Description:
Elements: H1 6-33, H2 40-43, H3 54-63, H4 82-104, H5 107-111, H6 117-140, H7 150-156, H8 161-165, H9 168-180, H10 183-199
Helix pairs in contact: 1-3, 1-4, 1-6, 3-9, 4-6, 4-7, 6-10
Amino acid sequence: MLNLSLQDLLIRLGAYLVVGLVFGLLANLVLRLLGGKAPAAAAGEGVGFAFFDLAGMLAAVLLKQGWARSPQPEPGGMKGGRIGLVAWVVITLALTLLAIALLRMGRPPIASLGNNVFTQAAISVINASGDIGIWFVIVSILPIPPLMGGNILLALFPGLRATARKFYWPGTAIVALLVGLGFVEAAFRPLWTVLRGWVIV
Length: 201
């Protein structure tokens, strides 16, 4: 049974914020390296925080399976065009997993600061960021706007771009249902297990 104690919920919230911020920073960095540009609406919201999604955060806190929203950059200016758009998605999510693994290496130095409430909280958040981050990447790659994977769908079917921009709330509702009803966990648990073996050491 899922632990819904206040302490556990706060730890998961902290883990989601860490993973979401890392993901947002990496998404912006990779997008710039590929010559892409986020739409003006997303660009004005801050470097890492433009990606935060309230529904995704709640799902992460309650079910450990959160997600972030993704801008829909135009592939025309990107290196490789539509292939560059797919590369942006894949590279960003792969780097997010790598960053989570590297973050976990910071536990010993934090623990060396002493056994107090702050170090214990930091270590707990880092520990939780492993599971939450892996599910974050798995959910985010689903080809549903407004998820990161929605850009793969748009790379394959560019004519859907105008429709996808209006699909934020319907897309969010679909993802929330897939996560909330357990379909994502049932379908992707084997992938989660493999990724967990690579990331969590």
